[in-house]
Write the structure tokens for this entry.
Amino acid sequence: MENDQDQQRTTLYELIGGADSVLRLVEAFYPLVQAHPLLGPLFPKDITPVMEKQAQFLTQFFGGPTLYSDQYGHPMMRARHMPFPITIERADAWLGCMAVALMAIGLDEDLQRVVLERLKGPAYHFVNTN
């Protein structure tokens, strides 16, 4: 039986299922983003590089290996998003697509809520346009 210290060391990355789940999430998420009228126009036609970076970032963000930083340096996500007009409506839409993707991959409902709560801070932090 695990003691409290062992349970505290469990990361969100591990709880959601590690690399396979992050990849499935990204693969479920980006078609929704591309089809969304507020979000799709912000992304390049070839979404593959974006998906690869997102998988690396989410892996790190959820407490897994530091794949993103190892390849690109400090994430500096707000600065990286500054060239794009991000409104509250777009942040809401992004989180909405993420909610659908989390459901689509069959993640436990409690974990879906935890993941969305964890992503709300960055999503709204990137808002740079009214």
Remarks:
- The CA atoms of residues 62 and 97 lie 18 Å apart.
- The chain has one domain: 4-125.
